[in-house]
Amino acid sequence: LHRRDFYDDGFGVDQALDEPGRDGRGLVVRGKHWLLLAPTTEAQMLHRALAYSLFHQPVLTFSNYNTVADYGNNYITQYTGIKTALPPQLNLLTLKPINDTSVLIRLEHFYQKTEDATVASVDLANIFNNIKVNSAQELNLQATEVVSTLTSTTVQLNPMQIKTYLLQVQKT
């Protein structure tokens, strides 16, 4: 949907809302509409999970190569940095290397209490492949102050909670 108005609408900008586009026929915007049918007790939770999966779709990339075997011999074609899946309530918001031995991560429990009141637990030491977590600190949301030094790498997040952690790591 795209609004087009050939005359000033009188709402203060003193000009028509006319964007003719490259071909002069007006802008054409294409999108998708999703319809989710679910019982009211489940609709909010399903809506949020669907929104995350639609927003975080895989990025398709392409390359010119003579054969699939040729490409496979020259590049890594399959890899996952995730050792174990996060609980379904959690989303990895931030994964930022600070230096060779420090990684900043930010996790969010993206459901509201009325959608899923489950407290989500995750072991920070068992999220990533090829990384050993030596120690972890919880930081404030902006990652500017230490809230606490963790004695255990297992952390819990309540509904709608976002937590930031600084991990001291080494590659394995």
TrEMBL record:
Highest taxon in the source lineage: Eukaryota
Q: Name one GO biological process term.
A: carbohydrate metabolic process
Q: Name one GO molecular function term.
A: carbohydrate binding
User: Could you tell me which Pfam families the record lists for this protein?
Assistant: Glyco_hydro38C2 (PF17677)
An example Gene Ontology cellular component term from the record?
Answer: lysosome
Report domain Glycosyl hydrolases family 38 C-terminal positions: 90-165
Q: Which residues form the signal peptide?
A: none
Protein name per its UniProtKB record? Glycosyl hydrolases family 38 C-terminal beta sandwich domain-containing protein
